[in-house]
Amino acid sequence: MAKLKFKKSEKKKPRPINETKLSKPNETYDPATTAIAVEQELKEEKPKKRRGRPKTGRKHYTTVRLMQSTVTKINALENALGIKTQDETVDQALDRVINSMTSDEKRAYKLWLDMFQKKERM
Known about the structure:
With 122 residues, the protein is mainly alpha-helical. The protein is built from four helices and no strands. It is elongated, with a radius of gyration of 39 Å. The mean pLDDT is 85.
């Protein structure tokens, strides 16, 4: 059997490592220029951005669950009559129904309306 010999001369030599240069920033912090920039920003009055739904008056909104077919009818009325919102569409439709009621139905409607309005205030 052949005897293995260690040959030191055939060993790989390490590659030389290049020196890593330190990186420098393009701009450095200067308190004088920063103070000037901050003063200019404070002088400029920017309009405040409001987040969320815009508040128009003191309206109070609630959710009404409707079937998809009813929503489609409301949207069709809204577009056909040129009304801006679904709320206005439903309001106009209800006004038309109320105007077509008999006097007994109107009296009952007003009683129920008063009762529900008092219940909301509690």
